[in-house]
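User: My collaborator sent over this chain with a note saying "see what the structure looks like." That's all I know about it. Can you take a look?
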Amino acid sequence: MLEELKQRLTATAAKIKRYEDRVRQYQQNRLFENNQKRFYEEIQSKTRKYEEIPDREETKAFWKDIWGQATEHDRDAPWITRVRRELQRPNKQEDVEISAEMMKKALVKLPNWKAPGPDAVQGFWIKNLTNLHSKLVDHLNECLGTDHIPAWMTTGRTVLIQKDVNKGQAPGKYRPITCLPIVWRILTST
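Assistant: Without extra context I'll predict from the sequence alone. Here is the result:
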């Protein structure tokens, strides 16, 4: 009797969860149809647990201390000598041509809603706008064939992410990530 009651309770809980998921999905679909900006803000607010940002001047000073000073490294370190010796006669990489199949494999791994780069394009759109795939393959092959990568493809947007909300807003408590354009991520993953 007790076991039967537990099973009924578990089944009822599963039904309620499915119902709540359907309702949330329906609401998100309606919101997406009517106001995409608010939809994305709602998605981001669920993943973002904080809204605090560090002081601008303090952050500039912190990172300038790290990256703004020229440092002379040991040019004769043993590992540098070893790498120089290994790279004296590098093997030339074979020419690469991206195929539609390679593109499909790269797009499968591409996350849908990760932070976009300066192009502000989400992976979801590239994956689902399949008519663009052949043109994208052509343009990426053109970049590889001419050995010229446009500057916009390698220009990123750096964002500071707080390591631990409980440790405060000191600039040292943030880590930088750089979001690159989605076309660059596709090219490097293929």
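A starting point for your reply to your collaborator: Residues 53 and 169 are 7 Å apart (CA to CA).
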